[in-house]
């Protein structure tokens, strides 16, 4: 870019017209609201500055579109390729970059470091307990409003299906999220009661963190948002919306292979946490460090990472 700028840069004009002394002097004159002085300043200064900058910009744009850059035809072609890179995209957005599981090649993140990989359902979020709670009602558990807080959604849902009064609904939902029922953070259901403490535990882990889920992006986004974990993860690898026989899911080896290629690190650098034994077995077979989460993710994390991230 320095070369591009120098190509159309005129040093003498910049020294004569673009300096603080001249700008300050003309600013003082303009404050006097003298029409003749204003006209003189416009013709002898601002008009020349504007014409120079316009010409400067045209030359820059011409240079950018006609000169080759690296192995690309020009800088514009390079930028079009660059902005599709997941690392660039994730740096611009608030929260993780969502990556669709696919058989198609994907650009590698080239992580030459430890990466923590988390399942979502029944690892970060107590999905089975949640669904069991809603199975008492007519329609089961269904996300109908992505912006509606989880507790508010539950209260409204129970009201509509059981016709309880509002205080009864709040009591039922409150019991589900109750801290008193969960004396510590050492259970998956307690993640909901101790949201801030759980988030601090994850943020304390000084390593790249991603989610690797068989759920859809819609489901993953909702869960991470409601648990206030959106800014804890760099990426979320998820399945496509429509389920078909060819859909790549855990424990298919192609799903793990996709994650390995995407992360660009050795299998021994991957630390994987999941509640399904078959998913853990396949990960171990590929050389990952895989850990089964049955009750306490925090306990498993602490035990598995002793001496690893220090």
From TrEMBL:
Coiled coil: 188-215
Superkingdom: Eukaryota
Cross-referenced Pfam families: Hydrolase (PF00702)
Keywords annotated in UniProt: Coiled coil
Key word Coiled coil present: yes
InterPro entries: HAD-like_sf, HAD_sf
PANTHER family cross-referenced by the UniProt entry: ALPHA-D-GLUCOSE 1-PHOSPHATE PHOSPHATASE, FLAVIN MONONUCLEOTIDE HYDROLASE 1, CHLOROPLATIC
Protein name, as recorded: Putative pyrimidine 5'-nucleotidase
Organism expressing this protein natively: Hamiltosporidium tvaerminnensis
């Amino acid at each position: 870019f320095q070369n591009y700028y120098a190509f159309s840069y005129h040093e003498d004009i910049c020294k004569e017209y673009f300096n603080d002394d001249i700008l300050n002097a003309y600013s003082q004159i303009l404050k006097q609201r003298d029409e003749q002085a204003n006209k003189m300043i416009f013709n002898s200064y601002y008009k020349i500055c504007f014409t120079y900058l316009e010409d400067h910009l045209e030359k820059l744009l011409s240079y950018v579109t006609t000169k080759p850059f690296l192995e690309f035809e020009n800088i514009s072609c390079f930028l079009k390729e660059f902005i599709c890179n997941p690392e660039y995209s994730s740096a611009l957005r608030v929260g993780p970059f969502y990556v669709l599981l696919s058989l198609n090649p994907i650009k590698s993140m080239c992580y030459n470091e430890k990466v923590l990989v988390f399942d979502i359902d029944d690892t970060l979020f107590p999905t089975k307990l949640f669904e069991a709670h809603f199975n008492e009602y007519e329609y089961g558990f269904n996300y109908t409003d992505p912006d509606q807080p989880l507790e508010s959604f539950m209260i409204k849902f129970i009201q509509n299906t059981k016709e309880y009064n509002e205080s009864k609904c709040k009591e039922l939902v409150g019991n589900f999220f109750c801290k008193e029922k969960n004396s510590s953070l050492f259970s998956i259901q307690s993640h909901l009661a101790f949201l801030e403490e759980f988030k601090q535990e994850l943020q304390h882990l000084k390593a790249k963190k991603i989610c690797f889920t068989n759920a859809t992006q819609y489901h993953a986004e909702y869960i991470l948002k409601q648990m206030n974990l959106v800014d804890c993860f760099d990426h979320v690898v998820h399945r496509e919306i429509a389920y078909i026989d060819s859909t790549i899911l855990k424990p298919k080896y192609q799903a793990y292979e996709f994650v390995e290629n995407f992360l660009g690190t050795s299998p021994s650098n991957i630390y994987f946490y999941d509640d399904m034994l078959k998913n853990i077995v396949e990960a171990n077979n590929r050389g990952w460090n895989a850990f089964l989460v049955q009750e306490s993710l925090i306990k498993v994390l602490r035990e598995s990472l002793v001496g690893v991230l220090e």
